[in-house]
Fold:
Amino acid sequence: MTTLHRRWAAVAALSLALIAGCARDPAAADVEVARVASPDARADAVLTEANPGATASFVYRIRVVAHGADWRAAPALAELHGATRNASAYGVDLRWQGADTLYADYLKARLVIAHKPTAAVAGRTVAVRLRAGVANPAAAAGGMAPRTP
Structure:
């Protein structure tokens, strides 16, 4: 094999590795950071956090699942990149308004992607309302995931 062929083989292998890394499940690195049961305890709102690294902001994903169910198979209804709850705390606060409406409160975010405004869960339709400009002065600094020593 010539040097040129070896270089092309190396470039092809690196390209495949990069493509495979980009094609992975975006929720694979998510960590559940909040779970709030609906008032009738038939559904749970689940907030996950992904930490893509030092050069990117935390990514928060909101899902609604049957009470106690695993969130990994549920589609994200919304993604909030770099969402904050106060000047030093990242995250989103979830709050139910009745059994059919979920509020996702945050102060600000770098990017908000609302995939779906509703979810069919536990025999009902739950509406998700994203509300910017809502501060939580009591939120602890940093991300929402537990810190490992």
